[in-house]
Design brief:
There is one protein chain. This protein has helices spanning 32-44, 95-104, 120-125, 163-169, 201-206, 208-214, 246-270, 275-285, 295-299, 319-332, 375-387, 402-408, 412-422, 431-437, and strands spanning 2-5, 12-13, 20-21, 25-28, 49-51, 67-69, 77-81, 86-90, 107-108, 142-148, 154-158, 178-185, 187-188, 191-200, 217-222, 228-237, 289-293, 307-315, 341-346, 361-369, 391-392. The chain has 439 residues and is an alpha+beta fold. The strands form 5 sheets. It has an 8-stranded antiparallel beta sheet with strand order 17-14-16-15-19-20-18-21, sandwiched between helices. It has 14 helices and 21 strands.
């Protein structure tokens, strides 16, 4: 285990650089035993403890002025149970390493988000998700969890063992303990055919129910200041594999979506009046394409342009009205928005604080280029989301507090009661958790 005092250069920053923290010390445990010892030592010193992954949350959910746990030495697959269809993985493992390792074993997660830089524990704890008609978030694919609780003990939970903890800790936002290992349900490696094509926003909204019902995974991106979207439909395929050609893939995913997009955002930040005409050109630059590949090469894509993001889950039935309200708000306002609005879906799940807990959900994400003022846009969008019974993504910018969230989540009290039992002294507390869960 390595321990470092946090001095002049001991400032932690998240990926978007909108959150910073100055911990007293940082600890990098190499085992569950070392992590448990670090939690007990922190308690003796009267310090709070937080684990931090790759910093892809836009909220301060992992920030602390106490002991910062870095789990990068706790990585890799502990074991594969092919009969049960599960894999157990250390909590600090990046999703990209898990996906590649599973593929080598002829296995895959059923569904995943669109980036894979995060650690498995950070991604699941904040409710990271992709899009799916029948398959849900990363956390919904968990079959068992191991975590260190506030007294330094190690607790394992599943649907059969400590089921109350399991119901809550899969999306625990760091409030119940520090996750040390996760067991995921996996399946034999399969192929997905992706069909990407531009489509007018009005058509997407009028046909949304059909597009959702006819595809295993449907999502779209609407370009503000235009009537244009880019849609993506992913469905299982019998093959053969037809991956993106290296040049075509580079041009669309690296050059257009990262290189040119970065330059366009620099221009837009310096001269906001250029954003609407640029958006009209950019939204027409992407052409239709179809390809077939293994899941993680279809679900995920590189994201090198840094941004700040807000995302809310609304009832799926409210999605079309929510999008129309967002479009009207942008059209009526002086806002200039250079990032597309991302729309995805998820079926209801049984996790206490999952954004899809108990209801079929649609996700609407708004973004702003890093360094561009985002408060006016996000505040206006948040008013619309909350009017439609929205639940904020735990790892993305929002202003909701415990009072609002207790009304948004029918099982909210179940979570806070469990937190009172597992962490009565708030060893894992911080300012963010005080706001969203209450004192």
């Amino acid at each position: 285990m390595s321990t470092t005092a946090s001095g002049k250069n001991g400032t932690w920053r998240n990926w978007a650089a909108n959150v910073t923290a100055r911990p007293v010390r940082e600890v990098a445990p190499a085992s569950v035993e070392e992590l448990a010892a670090a939690v007990r030592t922190a308690a003796e010193d009267g310090l709070p403890v937080k684990a931090v992954g790759t910093g892809h949350s836009f909220t301060a959910t992992a920030a602390t002025d106490g002991v910062l746990i870095r789990p990068h030495l706790m990585t890799g697959i502990r074991g594969i149970d092919r009969a049960a269809g599960t894999v157990t993985v250390e909590a600090g493992t990046p999703l990209k390493r898990l996906n590649a390792a599973l593929a080598r074993e002829g296995l895959s997660l059923t569904n995943m988000g669109d980036i894979m830089e995060q650690t498995v524990s950070g991604a699941t704890s904040t409710g990271t998700h992709g899009t799916g008609r029948d398959s849900a978030s990363l956390a919904a694919q968990i079959t068992a969890l191991e975590l260190v609780t506030a007294d330094g003990s190690v607790l394992t939970c599943s649907a059969r063992e400590h089921p109350d903890v399991f119901a809550a800790a899969r999306v625990g936002i760091g409030a119940l303990g520090i996750i040390t290992a996760i067991t995921f349900a996996v399946e034999p490696l399969f192929l997905l055919t992706a069909r990407e094509e531009p489509m007018p926003l009005d058509r997407v909204l009028s046909d949304f129910d059909e597009l959702w019902a006819e595809n295993e995974h449907f999502e779209f991106y609407w370009f503000p200041h235009t009537g244009n979207t880019n849609t993506k439909r992913n469905n299982r395929s019998a093959g053969p594999e037809r991956p993106l050609g290296r040049l075509n893939g580079w041009f669309e995913d690296e050059f257009l979506s990262n290189g040119v997009f970065q330059a366009v955002n620099w221009v837009g930040r310096a001269a906001p009046a250029t954003i609407p005409p640029i958006a009209r050109v950019a939204s027409r630059a992407l052409s239709a394409r179809t390809y077939t590949d293994i899941p993680y090469k279809v679900f995920t894509s590189p994201r090198r342009v840094r941004f700040v993001e807000m995302e809310y889950a609304v009832p799926r039935a409210a999605l079309v009205e929510t999008l129309r309200d967002i479009r009207s708000m942008v059209e009526r306002s002086p806002l200039r928005v250079s990032f597309p609005v991302e729309v995805r879906t998820a079926p209801a799940d049984d996790i206490v604080l999952s954004t899809a807990s108990g209801r079929d959900s649609a996700y609407v994400a708004v973004h702003m280029f890093r360094g561009t003022p985002y408060q006016a846009y996000f505040s206006a969008a948040e008013r619309i989301f909350t009017a439609h019974e929205g639940r904020p993504h735990w790892g993305k910018v929002h202003t909701r507090d415990a009072e609002y969230l207790a009304g948004a989540y029918p099982r909210f009290g179940e979570f806070t009661a469990l937190r009172d039992r597992l962490d009565p002294d708030r060893r894992f507390g911080n300012d963010y958790l005080r706001r969203v869960l209450g004192a």
